[in-house]
Design brief:
two-stranded antiparallel sheet; mainly alpha
Length: about 120
């Protein structure tokens, strides 16, 4: 497995599963790391592990089902987008991003977990 831009590539291997930040590192300023790990644990406990235990083996197809889970993918995409936005607010000098910087960096109402 190789880390490229915060995302592990080549990780779909039989019997090996990465969750939370081990799967895809989140930007610490966004505060989305716990949302990601709790989403991964919830999906594993309520969906994937029961299905895995119903049949023998831990092939790549079972691991891929977890990585392809739409709830997991939505949460991962939300976390990554939030990180990109914070980066742009911090370093981009365009009018749009300058106008977003002050409200985005001020204290406000917390957003629902995983962008829901």
């Amino acid at each position: 497995m190789v880390l490229a831009n915060g995302l592990n590539v080549g990780l779909r291997q039989a019997g090996v599963l990465l969750g939370g930040d081990a799967f895809e590192t989140s930007c610490p300023v966004t505060g989305t790391g716990t949302d990601k790990v709790f989403t991964d644990v919830e999906r594993l406990c309520n969906e994937h592990i029961p299905a895995w235990l119903a049949t023998e083996g831990m092939g790549e197809d079972k691991i891929s089902a977890f990585y392809d889970d739409p709830v997991k993918q939505t949460c991962d995409a939300w976390s990554a987008a939030k990180g990109r936005d914070f980066r742009r607010i911090t370093i981009d000098s365009g009018l749009y991003w300058r106008s977003q910087a002050w409200p985005a960096l001020s204290v406000g109402e917390p957003e629902d977990s995983c962008g829901k």
